[in-house]
Amino acid sequence: MIFKSVGEGRPYPEHNLSSRDWAKIPPRQVRLDQLVSTKRELDLQSLLAKDSTFYGDLFPHVVLWHGELYLEDGLHRALRSALHQRLVIHARVFDMDAI
């Protein structure tokens, strides 16, 4: 099992964080098996593309809400890590429980 579970969309309220806001959050290690994916489908061609992790933020975006860690952005990066048999990823974690 790669993720804790696979969800259908974002169960948490809109946070309105911009790319600049995400960049201010320092990355930390997160275990893949603690993440709940917010996407059910994956574009395999994107996953296997050489530059699939080149664009956007270097770190996946995770939202902590009601004690659960939701992988909001960075599914391809997380899966590539899992394919390399890594148990953790470095991600930016926004704590919605703290607001």
UniProtKB/TrEMBL annotation:
Protein name: Type II toxin-antitoxin system VapB family antitoxin
InterPro entries xrefs: VapB-like_prob
Lineage: Bacteria, Bacillati, Actinomycetota, Actinomycetes, Streptosporangiales
Pfam families in the record: VapB
Organism: Actinomadura barringtoniae
